[in-house]
Predict the structure.
Amino acid sequence: MTKRRILALVMLVALVAAACGDDDATTGGPMTEIGDGEGAVSIIAWAGYIEDGSTDPAYDWVTGFEEATGCEVTVKTAATSDEMVALMQGSNEYDLVTASGDASLRLISGGTVQEVNTDLIPSWDQVDPRLQEAPWHFVDGKHYGVPYQWGSNVLMYRTDVFGDTPPTSWSVVWEEQTLPDGESNAGRIEAYDGPIYIADAALYLMAHQPELGITDPYALNRDQFNASLDLMRTQRDLVFRYWHDAFIQLDDFANEGVVASTSWPFQVNYGQFTGVPVASVLPEEGATGWADTTMMHADAQHPNCAYMWLDWSLNPKVQGDLAAWFGSVPANLAACTGNELLTDTGCATNGEGNFDQIHFWKTPQADCFGMGGECVPYHEWVTASVAVIGGR
Amino acid sequence: MVTETTSASRLDRISGALHRHPRLRLALLLGLPLLWLVGVYGGSLIALLSQSFFSLDDFSGTIDRSLTLETWGDLFTDSNISIAIRTASMAVAVTIGSAIIAFPIAYYAVRYAGPRLRAVFFVLILIPLWSSYLVRVYSWKLILAREGILFWFVDKLNLNFLLEAALSAPGIGGPSLSASALGQFIVFTYIWLPYMILPVHAALERVPKSYLEASADLGAKPLQTFRTVIWPLAIPGIAAGSIFTFSLTLGDYIIPTIIGDSSPFVGLAIYSYQGVAGNLPLAAAFTFFPIVIMGIYLYVARRAGAFEAL
């Protein structure tokens, strides 16, 4: 009797939940003209992505925009792509979001963001042509945002261990081997703590087991996926720790005897700055990376100000300052010369020349991004990576 | 004057009615707290668990709100069960470790320390709770690091072989203390220890001195008194403390991300399933593990008399 009552209650809750669940997003065509500003625009961004000078007065690309357009900028920082997706799906409180490739396709397929009319963005022509029709925001012939910045993951290593022979392949983190200092790499390497790291395994297999036929490390069929997991399982025994906190990783390099790992240019720059003997390479297999796009909510409350920000965000001064601050590469390459903060070598340091070797993050989809066949969906990547890191 | 009488008589009537209807009195008293407990706690728990009867659509990655048991099928995999076992074993180990450390401290504070020393004891026990949890965990990472103070100290004592032996033990070892289950155990125990000391202290304080004197008068040796008088009376305190240490360890998902070899705990797995994959149904089903583990634990603790010492 009681059991049946509980079951009935559960069913009721389920029905209520189902009734609240359906929510049709209203989507029309893109805007055709920009009207007067609404006086405000709100943006979800990565920490450090939209600086108004309050952290460091030299880094301010908001005040100028506010003075020029009268649109007051409010910023909500988010820590993960998933948080960004959740915030955008929750309401139209936010007009814009700086979405990475592992969030952008989810936002597009969910109807959360709107098509952008590039004719309304005078600076569009300055966008790096390699990014203009990038698959993480250009879908079915429509633009769903404006590229902002990009960067690549790198192989960071201790210079005192590798000496004159820096690693050239990701094999130092995937296969047990003796390092130049005569000791094994077991327990002295790190890996990234996130399901998207399976793509790094797939990228390695792409070069070393061509018979698997991997062409895109984010579109894996069952066999390719399982092979990547096998590689991750053998790596499990070598891994000191799976990192997701940049400072913990640096500490492990400084105090724990970790000597090689996938990393971001940020840790390398910061480590060198604080005296940790580290350097980085882009290995011969290429690397995974991230590319962010500013996207606009389907029901944005301040569309005019939002369009003005999209144009402003491509301004070479903004792009260059941001690249210097964040260790990324600008979407507008005009920013690479003559920027005081970035300096003329900044773009090269941050990996501008590596574009073709980088496979940018995108959320794995069951339909293989329309390339045909059936791919392992993202939620299985998550369950599998939890299992592998747990030693299964 | 007239109004006063009416208001007084109205009050009289209300209190009279309440006196005659004890059930109404009880309902008024308990109504709000009960609504809170049942509605807010129970309701949200049911809302959460009911999510587990949905499933995640492979193609769109959105939640398919039709009732199914598919998610529950995904729950009982090797990997998920091993996560639950890992978390529960750590919780048990931390609880036993805390009890072993807490008992002598509490015993000393109750039996031997003077009032001033006892105050110092309490401050020392409570001080860590005033500083940020995160700061304490991060500093432990530095203490346990290979180039950290603990390794340095052990090296000075020429006891390296002991540490290396512990670190090469399967299951608890690792390349460094800060990347091993052993290190995790140390940090967990440090963080939750105060929650064990305080209830044990309270339980021991309630053991009357006259019992001990009576026991001695009857010819019991100190060890015998301890085994037959003090220990049984302290058990409810230990059981009460263990509820804290056990459930806090079971639910923690910050220490395993900073200390240890990244092997997921229950909290981390739930965070990954919901926070990273948006797989709310599986995350909801996963809460089944802590609920069952805590259910069993509370049952055992109740049998040990834990709720009498709370």
